[in-house]
Amino acid sequence: MLEPTNKKTAKIVIKNVDLTLLVPKAPEWVKKDKGLEVIALTDREWNRQQISFPANSKHIEISGGDGFEKQNLTEIALANNCLNAGYWEILLFTKEDSNKSLYYQSWFTFPMGLYKNVFENINKMSYWKHWWRLEHWQDPSGTLVRTDLLRKVIDQKEVATKFLPDERIIVSGEQGRKVRTTLATNLTTWRDFYNNENEIKFATFRPPGFYDSKKPWGNEYWRIGKFQKAILRNIKPVGVEQNLQEIELLFSDTKTGETNKLFISGVNLKELPKLAVTDYSKGLYMPLGIGIPPFYQSYEELEKNHPDKSPYFSLLLDSKDKWIDHHHLALDGSAIHLDKDNPNLLHIYLLSYERNTLIAHFSINLQ
Question: How far is CA 360 from CA 221, 309, 333, in A?
């Protein structure tokens, strides 16, 4: 409940929301392996999960005030943001010139006693098993990740993939709004991210949920500094009946020569939206992790697609299958879609820290 402090402002209530869908819940199949459980719960807490409601939703009440909010609010959003457990947000939106516009944003601490109870009820485990990691950002780098426990490979092949280092950086969606949070100059092509990584920093997203350019966030882009190849697999994911697909992108660490691997798995490639490159943000827009929701979705979509039931996972691993902390690397997730004119062409884009910018674009021939 947002209570007004004057007579002109409305009271806003968000009600009857299933909080179990917004608190980290590990898929049942990861609980068989300590490493998978740690990564699933850690990445779920460290990723933003924002759900939206239309202003006329049955979950929203707008009352009182001078009527401005009742007439002009179009959307209300609730977010468990990508910081430690307990940091949440509420956002109110209007429309200005047919464009979505932020009207009000607030931050609050989710009551940790209730958070603990919800966590224990849905995970059937003690909160104290993971609480320090969830509340204090304990980095589980080096955790062994067994992808064979997440899916079985049916077949695989190397696929022709284009990565053009001199392609101009593409900007759309939230990247257009976040230009000011990328603390670098003269970034024009993908090559600039990997040749000048020491000069590229981002405004740090810090508690309770602000961007702070005075405390810049660095990167480790040398760990994905040179693209090698892509592998396409047909897979049988754990937990679902349908066979799906997986893309593995392989990179050379330009400092050590080690091969690091990015998995984007549990996707039905044929059902991806067909879009122009300029509309990439309308594709499958997902964080890294296991059993995770999209960064942004409607509450109605969340109710239909429980994250802990999802076969989707995305992981960055080293040559020994150990988890790389993609947050410190400054990689937040990916956007993928089929080409608008060629359904056999898959586009994959990598999202930087806090999705401030794209850092790569791959075109994969699926035939």
Answer: 11, 29, 11
List the one residue out of 330, 322, 278 whose CA is nearest residue 142: 322
Q: How far, CA to CA in Å, does 29 sit from each of 116, 213, 293, 308, 311?
A: 22, 40, 17, 10, 10
E strand or H helix that includes residue 317: strand 313-317
Amino acid identity at 81: N
Residue 310 pLDDT exceeds 80:
yes
Q: Report whether 19 contacts 263 (CB < 8 A).
A: no
- Angular region, 72: left φ>0, alpha ψ -120 to 50, beta rest: alpha
Side chain identity, residue 230:
A
Tell me which H or E stretch contains 192: helix 191-195
Beta-bridge mates of residue 217: 202
Which DSSP string do the residues of 44-66 spell out, in sequence order?
Answer: HHHS-EEEEEETT-TTEEEESTT
Strand order in the sheet with 201-206: 182-183, 201-206, 210-217
Q: How far apart are CA 266 and CA 93, in angstroms?
A: 33
Residues 330 and 166: their CA atoms lie apart, in Å, by 21
Torsion of CA 207, 208, 209, 210, to 10 degrees: -70
Is residue 306 within 8 A of residue 291, CB to CB? The reply is: no
4 prior amide bond cis, ω within 30 = no
pLDDT digits (tens, 9 = 90+) for 85-126: 999 999 999 998 888 899 999 999 999 999 999 999 999 999
Bond into 208 cis (ω within 30): yes
